Amino acid sequence: MKTFGEFENEIYFDGLRGVLPKLPVDMASLEKKAIAAWPDSIVSYVQGGCGDERTQDVNVTAFEKWGLIPRMMVDARQRDLSIELFGMKFLTPIFLCPVGVLGICAQDGHGDLATARAAAKTGVPMVASTLSVDPIEAVAAEFGDVPGFFQLYTPNDREFAESLVRRAEAAGCKAIVVTLDTWVAGWRPRDLNQSNFPQLRGHCLANYFSDPVFRSRLPKPPEEDRQSAINRFCQVFGSSLTWADLPWLRSLTKLPLILKGICHPDDVRQAIDGGVDGIYCSTHGGRQANGGIACLDMLPAVVKAAGKVPVLFDSGVRSGADIVKALALGATAVGIGRPYTWGLALDGTDGIVHVLRCLLAEADLLMAIDGYPRLTDLKPSALMRVS
To answer: Which residues touch 251 (CB under 8 Å, ≥6 apart)?
Structure first.
């Protein structure tokens, strides 16, 4: 069975023919190249965090507090990184996080489609965002045989919310991910200094402008009066959900329902009591609230409270080693966010595929060398807290 780590040999043997990697294999170099390729407005939106960006930074550095303990004399020639999630089998334990400006991150302006194609090529599932340049029907059509999910920014118009969910179901999405921490935009100085909010300029609103319920609320179709449609978006975006709304959310779909932004054990238990199928432990990468705790530091308590309910995790993942550490702390699946947008910026679908292959190769080789051939071998006892 071919392992993800064989990507390393592929690169070395290509080098014997004088062929070097088109893109860097380390995320720091890739990030620098992407920043240089993007206009300032995209750099501020994708790279920026809340406040002084401390929470964004500690999400990244939290992984440095943990070290993987090597175990020797283990037959790790073959590794199995596959997982089962909501009754579906995935080749890897990672997924592509929802990113609300994917479309304009790509050189051709259709980054959501490029990301879906990368998911189809790699087997890494995509969580498609409500905020996209192309509607969910077009994005999901590119998933191929790989199950994809739909992330819902719940509007305050319930009929419209239901319409979005129904469209995602009809498009073939296999789960609904409800983001809880973005009913209002956080204080993001990089964007504020540039007065930069892409959606107010009409970007990434295809799921709104194409929706029959949303369109029924407009005096004229968006094609004839774009500004009125943008104004309507501002009016309906974001509903401050409470636990009293959970029965309604649960009633919207029979698909697996996942709540994103859950970081407290009490919230985990209440969500599970309310019938959710998955917990998504995330601090939105530090984009929505500053002054918080690193998401990784909250993961063990979330996992313990979740019991047998799967826990998805993101925030701060920048390497294959980070993926392994999050899995050892109990995450069922680990989300990749900013790194794949860097690959997208530089080389579209192929750039995302490159990023995913690099991260998976590093994780696979780390598990091989340190003696953890299966994901079931990765437990909290495999890690040591370091200062």
So the answer is: none
Beta carbons within 8 Å of 40's beta carbon, 6+ residues apart: 194
**Can you point out the beta strands (E) in the chain?**
66-68, 83-85, 88-90, 94-96, 127-128, 149-152, 176-179, 257-260, 278-281, 311-313, 333-336, 383-385
SS3 at position 311: strand
CATH number for the 29-187+238-385 domain, one of 3.30.70.1060, 3.40.50.2300, 3.40.980.10, 3.20.20.70?
3.20.20.70
* Euclidean distance between CA atoms 99 and 130, whole angstroms: 9
Rounded distance, CA 80 to CA 210, Å? 41
Taking the whole predicted model, whether its pTM rises above 0.85 is answered as yes
| Cβ atoms of 292 and 52 closer than 8 Å | no
User: Per-residue pLDDT tens for 11-50?
Assistant: 999 999 999 999 999 999 999 999 999 999 999 999 999 9
In sequence order, the 6+-apart residues with CB closer than 8 A to the CB of 258 are 149, 175, 176, 177, 178, 276, 277, 278, 279, 280, 312
Is the distance from CB of 272 to CB of 188 less than 8 angstroms? Answer: no
User: Whole-angstrom Cα distance, residue 21 to residue 11?
Assistant: 7
Q: How is residue 70 written in tokens?
A: 């090597």
- Point out the residues that are catalytic: 284
